[in-house]
Design goal:
This protein is an alpha/beta fold and 452 residues long. It folds into 2 domains: 160 residues, Aspartate Aminotransferase, domain 1 (Alpha-Beta Complex); 236 residues, 3-Layer(aba) Sandwich (Aspartate Aminotransferase, domain 2). It is 40% helix and 15% strand. A 7-stranded mixed β-sheet has the order 4-10-9-8-7-5-6, with helices on both faces. The chain has a 4-stranded mixed β-sheet with strand order 1-2-3-12. β1 and β2 form a beta hairpin.
Length: 452
């Protein structure tokens, strides 16, 4: 099953690896290079990346040779192609390999071709995209839906379309970069609240309204935070928004379809179906395609997003193949088969977390498709990721800017079709690699919780 004849051994000389400098530094050091030559002033960054690649601790921009299945073949800088257990892809319900999804994509390709050939504001819509808007609105209980070419575009586009310079944004400190960059592009009035801390949200909203009753406030959070696997108290946040005349936006990219009753994610689990002001998401985690959406109940907001979200107006719309793929995935998600797939996914999540905890590792958050395993230092995460790649277990070592400096982790992304044997084997190898790399429990990683 696994390739045991690997032609290099990244652990053959730990002292040489430590002395190489490949475990030192972080990408923050290279964020603002100086000099007049835009094309060459990134040379120091390039040299640092190349150094890490030579020593097997550059796990980025790898190549997936084939579909994103639980067993996959992966190649990367300085590594031969290996076939192993894949915890690095985002295909939570294993729908990318579902025969009905492939059939729907092929049927759309034959009927409408591969290309939308225009912006959704012009002639880029198809019968598939119109049906998808309707299906999403019905699922979410929010009748006004706007589609985007990517999840990033949906997040950035919605915020920049709805918020102007005099408005305010109150955003969770761990919100996705697309949300944070959208807020920064829309207004200078951005306030960051402590992670999941509703008391802090209340304080910020009260302070804003004490000095500004005329302009809008957008509160931004996520249903499932992708690096910490935790969730906010949505009923309380929506209540606070009502109290202070603010609007709540929830990004459900990682939980919609993969969790919750009927696939409604955290919104469904917290009984907020149809009650959130703005819901946005991505199709790239559970729905086997690129793309994203924004949904709300108010037609004026939909019109504002259509006309002023640059990524919607000035980007080509979803292709017929993408829209048909999401439609078929959505049909499965909301069926009895979808319930079974979610049960399989959650079984894997609970078992993997239990095995890792039993081995002394600290998994952040709660059971979900995402299992973040705390490493702490960037050097520890790099070594652990390298050792796992050598053992043909593919995970995503995450360091700054994906997480704060000194808060590195391994992010394991589960699929419904991971087998119990794969979960058990991977857990043992992750524990072994983390132990050899020197991982320990976090000293002060205690995210805030929503309190009434």
């Amino acid at each position: 099953m696994l390739n045991e004849s690997v032609p290099f051994d990244p652990a053959r000389d730990p002292a040489a690896l430590a002395a190489s400098g490949a475990l030192e530094g972080n990408i923050a050091q290279f964020a603002q290079p100086r000099g007049p030559d835009l094309l060459r002033r990134g040379a120091a960054l390039d040299a640092w990346c190349a150094l890490r690649a030579r020593h097997g601790v550059w796990p980025y921009a790898r190549v997936l040779e084939g579909p994103p299945e639980p067993l996959a073949t992966v190649a990367g800088d300085g590594m031969p192609a290996l076939r192993g257990i894949n915890f690095a892809s985002q295909d939570y319900l294993s729908l990318a390999a579902h025969p009905a999804v492939a059939e729907a994509a092929l049927r759309a390709l034959g009927e409408a071709g591969p290309h939308s050939a225009g912006s959704a504001v012009l002639l880029g819509n198809t019968r598939y995209s119109r049906r998808l808007e309707g299906a999403l609105g019905e699922l979410l209980g929010l009748g006004q839906v706007v589609l985007f070419p990517t999840g990033w575009a949906a997040a950035f586009g919605a915020i920049t379309a709805l918020v102007h310079g005099a408005d305010h944004v109150v955003i969770d400190q761990l919100a996705h970069a697309s949300l944070r960059q959208g807020a920064a592009a829309a207004t200078r009035n951005v306030l960051v609240h402590r992670h999941l801390d509703c008391d802090h949200v209340r304080e910020l909203l009260a302070a804003i309204r004490a000095r500004d009753a005329a302009n809008a406030i957008l509160v931004v959070t996520e249903g499932l935070f992708s690096m910490d696997a935790d969730s906010p108290d949505l009923p309380l946040l929506q209540h606070l928004c009502r109290e202070y005349g603010a609007t709540l936006l929830v990004d459900v990219a990682h939980d919609l379809g993969a969790m919750g009753p009927g696939g409604l994610g955290v919104i469904g689990a917290q009984r907020m179906h149809g009650r959130i002001d703005l819901v946005l998401g991505a199709f790239s985690k559970t729905f086997a395609a690129n793309g994203g959406f924004v949904a709300c109940a108010e037609r004026p907001a939909r019109r504002q997003i259509q006309m002023y979200a640059g990524p919607h107006m000035f980007s080509n719309a979803l292709s017929p193949v993408q829209a048909a793929t999401v439609l078929e995935s959505l049909r499965i998600v909301t069926s009895g088969e979808g319930e079974g797939l979610r049960a399989d996914l959650m079984r894997n999540a609970v078992e993997l977390r239990a095995l890792l905890a039993g081995a002394g590792l600290h998994c952040l958050g709660a059971p979900s498709p995402i299992v973040p395993v705390w490493m702490g230092s960037e050097a520890v995460a790099r070594v652990a990721g390298m050792l796992l790649a050598h053992d043909a277990v593919f995970v995503n070592p995450v360091e700054y800017p994906g997480v704060p400096l000194g808060a590195a982790r391994l992010r394991l992304q589960l699929m419904a079709q991971h087998t119990p044997a794969q979960v058990r084997r991977a857990a043992g190898l992750v524990a072994g690699a983390a132990g050899r790399a020197g991982a320990g429990r976090p000293a002060t990683h205690t995210p805030g919780r929503c309190r009434g």
